[in-house]
Amino acid sequence: MDILGKLIGVFSPERAYKRAAYKQALHELERAMSYDGASFSNVHSNTNWYAENVPAAWADAGERDVLRARARDLERNSDVMNAIVGAFKRNVYGAGFRLRSTVESEELREEIERAWEIWCKKENCDVTGTQSFDSLMRMAIRRKKVDGGILILKTHTAGGFLPFKLQALEVDALDETAVAHGNNKVIGGIEYDIYNKAVGYHIKQFAPDGFTETETKFYQAKDVIFYFTKNRPTQLREVSDLAATITRVRDINEFMRSLAVKERLLACLSVFIKRDSPPTTGRGYGSVDDGYMGKMISPGTINYLSPGDDISVVQPNMQATDATAHIKQQIRMLGSGQGLSYELASRDMSETNYSSARQGAIEDDLTFEEERQQLKDVMDEIFEEFIKALYLSGKLSDGRPADGSFWEKNRYEYSRHTWIKAPKKWIDPAKEAAANKDALLTGQKTFADMAAENGKDWKEQLEEMAKIQNYAAELDVDLVGQLLGARKEEEAGDEKDEE
């Protein structure tokens, strides 16, 4: 029995016995636990680790706004944060996606693709007339990463190529004061039915200054695209994608700021003159307070010390090499927390060779592919609404079916499409080309696969190749012969190198 138990036993033996029995029971329970992670033992450093199982909506509601505000602050002031966000924006959307309609009619396919190209211009797709479709999608990726999500309204207004435009809104616009609407519940500004399916959005309206709130409007769910990542079944709203790593970004910034101050101080050459006694003449000398508070050391300054004062210098022992290793480790952990390699997060390729860079690029692309798929879902919904507006505006040559079958069959036929992503640059084009050649010859890839990887449609590429060959034949240029001759020269050079 411990000292406290003995002391209690002096005044109340019964309470001392109960206390000892309780401690023994806890000890037995601790030993009986199947998982070390569930224990509260000092051995596993879990003594003060308390966590609760609550619905995601509860856990997120009280901290969502704080996380978003801090993530935005780092977005404005942290280069490390912008490196992470920029990596996602470049790789998820990059130079953009090209629409390829897959309807059976070639004439109709060309009309749809031409109309989409026109509608994607800023004056036609953005209700504010300031952003093209590509710019809107890049901003959506950025806002999802920092804020956790973004609202995209499908508006039907006059003007422009079609009476259909997009309006991007920040998640701050959701009216969290609304609690009920008819028989439905409203949580965080979103209205849900009995199955927790979103049926509408209560969105605050603001004056052009962005601060003056005018009213709250209700939008049906079919007119709103809420782009965010859902990680739990009970999650109802967005949480910043950077929530798990936001503290690490701030730690890196604070560490680098402190390091910069240290290096600036070490770079200063200053002289301090210490006096044994104050001068007998002159103004201001020898006073009790010579104004040291808030003084800064500047290069080349000469300062006087008051009598009895001395200088003590705090000299940090950490060297620049230690700081570099620490920053690298922090950025490596930050990148891994976001599913990125250190090289992509830091843009530091000093320790990279072709194999490691290629492996890192493959792993990074798996991370980006998840985001691309989610973004494609958003783009698909926008394109389907575009097809409706295109058809109803009478801009398709086949007109409107008299029996109204468009809503039952034709809209799905007209909406058939694929997205072709703009190609990315290869680390070693020669090696990649050789690998593609082997994959094509062994049947691991088709010509369509290779064309898609290069951001092209395989049919268009074949048609373009045929046009070039026909035009070369008209000019009596033997392209095939030139290619074969170049190949023979290359093979001869290889044989010579082997000898």
Give an overview in words.
- The protein is of the alpha+beta class and 499 residues long.
- Among the domains are: 3-51, no CATH class; 58-87 and 106-228, no CATH class; 246-279 and 296-337, no CATH class.
- 48% of the residues lie in helices and 12% in strands.
- The chain has 17 helices and twelve strands.
- The chain has helices at 3-11, 13-32, 56-61, 64-77, 79-92, 106-119, 122-125, 133-147, 246-266, 320-337, 342-346, 354-392, 410-414, 429-441, 447-453, 458-474, 479-498; strands at residues 97-101, 149-155, 165-169, 180-181, 184-187, 190-192, 198-206, 213-220, 224-228, 271-274, 302-305, 417-421.
- The chain has a five-stranded antiparallel sheet, with no helix packed on it. It has a three-stranded antiparallel sheet with strand order 3-2-9. Strands 1-12 form a two-stranded antiparallel sheet.
- β6 and β7 form a beta hairpin.
- α1 (3-11) packs antiparallel against α2 (13-32), α4 crosses α5 (79-92) and α9 (246-266) runs antiparallel to α10.
- It is extended.
